[in-house]
Here is the input.
Amino acid sequence: MSTGDHTFTVAVAGASGYAGGELLRLLARHPNVEIGAITAHSNAGSRLGDIQPHLHSLRDRILEDTTAANLAGHDVVFLALPHGASAALAEQLPEDTLIIDAGADFRLEEPAQWEKFYQSEHAGTWPYGLPELPGAREALKNTNRIAVPGCYPTSAQLALAPGFAAGLLEPEDVVIVAASGTSGAGKALKPHLLGSEVMGGMSPYGVGGSHRHTPEIEQGLSRTAGEPVTISFTPTLAPMSRGILTTATARVKPGVDAQQLREAWEKMYDDEPYVHLLADGQWPHTKAVQGSNHAIVQLAFDEHAGRVIVVAAIDNLTKGTAGGAVQSMNIALGLAETSGLDMEGMAP
Ligand SMILES: NC(=O)c1ccc[n+]([C@@H]2O[C@H](COP(=O)([O-])OP(=O)(O)OC[C@H]3O[C@@H](n4cnc5c(N)ncnc54)[C@H](OP(=O)(O)O)[C@@H]3O)[C@@H](O)[C@H]2O)c1
Here is the structure.
């Protein structure tokens, strides 16, 4: 049955934050959505226009408290909250509500990995909202619970999945270095994110395998490869508000050549609405995807090093969070996957 003419009521928890604001920016123009409750924590009671002044059509809406009672009664509830807060709320919401969590609570399969990286009790595992991965769309069609991937994991997996799906890459010695804009760290005030600290320079963080997205990227690439994949992941902070540029490299299996590599990426992405392998010689630029749900990817075979080098660019708040969440919602609700997501990039 097509649900293309149907209107679904949607609530957004964490509407005062960056991810919640981006969700509202996309949902406000979605043809099948009516925005119901919008909730916040310290900003509850405020007018949305005072907190998110770019959301013009919703400026007079009031942010309510983030409680299960305020979120209940909607077809869809988006949770854009600090990790830990979503699991506690989700268990109080009705079974038949489509819950889409932008946080990490339900992304990891292994409780031990969750406990190691998040130092709390594992809440469970929900279908993963990265539709381009093998088997993901089927899982999303049959669920009312979706775990939206982290922003780095979105770009890293989109960069490398075709090579692992085609069995062309060695599963060890995968190196991923990514630069993110500061909105990736959320809106809460932190000294290292002050303009004076960030402008005009770059710095690494979470070095040495300690970043929380490490197990998530390994989990996704291992699922795609059908064998355990080990990565070394280093994130860096770039002086921009939005965007991720990921450079991922992996050793290719003996005998694999440049043409086989290119064909694997073409095969996986040729029919995708939001992931594009660029023309030969053209390299991803974060501005080309800013504000859009598109991811752009390019690869090269470094024959001397025996490695494939893949560069991917996404907007961390769009394809990396809210856009991916809406794309997954569309699939789960039986809508056109691209509904409400036809924004172009915003360069320069
Ligand atoms: N930013 C990104 O690029 C990105 C990408 C992928 C995933 N995510 C995930 O999305 C979630 C939200 O991230 P964000 O960047 O939007 O963070 P943020 O800008 O700091 O926003 C956090 C939101 O959660 C609310 N909140 C804070 N503490 C709370 C609590 N104890 N209980 C309930 N609500 C609380 C805040 O409300 P008040 O402002 O009213 O206090 C705000 O609405 C996180 O889990 C993050 O990992 C973010």
